[in-house]
Automatic annotation (TrEMBL):
Family: Belongs to the LysR transcriptional regulatory family.
Gene3D superfamilies to which the protein is assigned, alphabetical: Periplasmic binding protein-like II, Winged helix-like DNA-binding domain superfamily/Winged helix DNA-binding domain
Keywords: DNA-binding, Transcription, Transcription regulation
PANTHER family named among the record's database cross-references: LYSR SUBSTRATE-BINDING, TRANSCRIPTIONAL DUAL REGULATOR HCAR-RELATED
Domain of life where this protein originates: Bacteria
Organism from which the protein derives: Streptomyces albiaxialis
Pfam families, alphabetized: HTH_1 (PF00126), LysR_substrate (PF03466)
Keyword set includes Transcription: yes
Chain ranges of the HTH lysR-type domain: 2-59
Record-given protein name: LysR family transcriptional regulator
Length: 306
């Protein structure tokens, strides 16, 4: 009989490519991972791994079993969700991950709704980097995570995970109040000679801003690399450059900073393990989150980070 825990290790090896990466993601030692995969090979009765020096690759049989493991893990999530649905009420922990802007702008209202409707549910929030989302969900460290993507920077596929749309938001060009560009002229192109304030290199927000400028026909001159939107807006107000800011990031907007909509949107979704969307706690959180994300009239909101 094949052990589901060892099948999970095989699935992770198929996704990550190295035993060291699997061990780091699942908090095992590399030797423990190797030992468990060796046991799985004996259970399977055929070679699953091919070792060349220090490298390990999956054999065709290993790749096929990894695909079956993915399907089995999804069915287990569905089974767990169905069992949870037979219980009366919602109780126990719900582990939520979020990027900072959403944690500040959406989660308080969503958690208030959960506390009112399901007082025995115990949500715990953790800020997470986008790069850590897949492994945190697949490893069971989190149950549901808020993720985002931009028109020009679509999210990568998330093997073993599913996503559900929550909201879209407008992206704005933030700059010192001045005469707006002539009607019909691209507001980004009008600021091609300006200094720019962008997120740190390697972040989704940085990639979005660079690609937006390139799509407008120029390469931006970046002066500052800042992730926190209140700091970005303060730097804009200080005359340090212009920046692109999504609506949820418009916090404590300085009076002298003007926002101009640009043809760019940010999409926010929830991600969970495949098959886990029907879990009552995950579904209740998603419903509360969508309610919190309902469109609001323009305002000079209050704080967030990228």
């Amino acid at each position: 009989m094949l052990d589901i825990r060892r099948l999970r290790l095989l699935r992770e090896l198929a996704l990550r490519g190295t035993i060291a990466a699997v061990a780091e993601a699942l908090a095992f030692s590399p030797s423990a991972v190797s030992q468990q995969l060796a046991v799985l090979e004996r259970e399977a009765g055929v070679p699953l791994l091919e070792r060349t020096g220090r490298r390990v690759t999956l054999t065709p049989a290993g790749e096929g079993l990894a695909r079956h493991a993915e399907a089995l893990l999804e069915r287990l999530e569905r089974a767990s969700a169905e069992l949870a649905a037979t219980r009366e009420g919602l109780a126990g922990p719900l582990l939520i991950g979020a990027f900072p802007t959403a944690a500040r702008a959406l989660l308080p209202a969503a958690l208030t709704t959960l506390a009112r409707v399901w007082p025995d549910l115990e949500p715990t929030v953790e800020e997470v980097d986008a790069a850590d989302v897949p492994e945190a969900l697949r490893a069971g460290d989190l149950d549901v995570v808020l993720v985002h993507e931009y028109d020009l920077v679509p999210g990568d596929p998330l093997p073993g995970l599913e996503t559900e749309a929550v909201m879209e938001e407008q992206v704005y060009l933030a700059e010192l109040d001045r005469t707006p560009p002539p009607p019909g002229r691209d507001p980004l192109l009008a600021r091609r000679d300006a200094s720019w304030i962008m997120g740190k290199r390697g972040t989704l927000c940085h990639s979005m801003a660079v690609r937006a400028c390139e799509a407008a026909g120029f390469r931006p001159r970046v002066r500052h690399f800042v992730d926190e939107y209140p700091t970005v807006l303060a730097l804009v107000a200080a005359g340090q450059g212009v920046a692109l800011v999504p609506r949820l990031g418009v916090i404590d907007l300085p009076e002298e900073v003007r926002l101009t909509p640009v043809p760019l949107r940010r999409r926010i979704s929830v991600a969970y393990r495949s098959g886990g969307g029907r879990h009552p706690a995950v579904a209740a959180f998603t419903t509360a989150l969508k309610r919190a994300a309902r469109p609001q009239p323009p305002e000079r909101p209050g704080p967030a980070r990228s």
